[in-house]
Amino acid sequence: MTARAVLVGCAKLPEGDGDERAVLPALAEIGVTAGWAVWDDDAADFATADLVILRATWDYTARRADFLDWCASVPTLRNSVDVVHWNTDKTYLLDLESAGVPIVPTRLVPPGTEPDWPDVPFVLKPTVGAGSRGAARFAGGSGDAAAHLRSLHQRGHAVLLQPYQSSVDAEGETALVFFGGVYSHAFTKAAMLTGAGVDGSGLFVSEKLGPVEPEPGFRALAEDVLDAAVERLGGRRADLLYARVDVVRGDDGRPVLLELELAEPSLGFAHADAAAPLRFASAVRQQLR
């Protein structure tokens, strides 16, 4: 079998952030030629690709409508445009909560409204955002939070308000990665809303990552999250080329969902075992068939 895949970046990261360095050789070993292209480059050839794989399209947040139109124009896109449309607005968390998934408590604050401000530490984040840009942590009360909320609203964003999970300071987040609906590996992400700088591209907050063996409760929640997501989307787990489930420990000690990333997440290859790119390559072959 021979096939051509295109990994998709953006103008500031036309070949991603380097995490996929081992992916292209792994694909080549099983007959898939792969290269990079920028999603909004008119000269890029997506039409003849057997598979078009979103990887580092992290500038889409400023032009989400244009980005979704482009996604709809690429029939071999993975994950599919329906998945991307649902997952690039963080109100999907409320859909999953309605399906019984335990999530970090989340309130939606639409433009023109203001919440009852918590008196405990909390986070504000835009519903459409990537790389933690626009997210900020506050100590409690309105204070600077009201100004940040107005700034996000003025830019047209609806906003999520979530109590800050104190376990993140000690444990960070656990990101569990799946290929073709099957668990592959996990890595940790240290707390990012405590003054971490923005990457040189300006597209994401710098992260401190590391490998981890997730505890069974985190694994079980991640499996439940994927099942609930595909039921909501009307597909199968195998339809998802990749998924990343970000889990934290809630204040009661139980795992809760922070985010589900199905559009263009970092997959932590640099912090996984050497076989992870091979598992990804096999999942690509499965999608091709």
UniProtKB/TrEMBL annotation:
All residue ranges annotated as the ATP-grasp domain in the record: 93-289
SUPFAM superfamilies: Glutathione synthetase ATP-binding domain-like
InterPro entries: ATP-grasp, DcsG_Biosynth_Enzyme
UniProt keywords, alphabetically: ATP-binding, Ligase, Nucleotide-binding
Coiled coil: none
Record protein name field: Glutathione synthase/RimK-type ligase-like ATP-grasp enzyme
Record GO terms (molecular function): ATP binding; ligase activity; metal ion binding
Organism of provenance: Prauserella shujinwangii
Domain of life according to the entry: Bacteria
PANTHER family in the cross-refs: GLUTATHIONE SYNTHETASE, PTHR39217
The keyword ATP-binding is annotated on this UniProt entry: yes
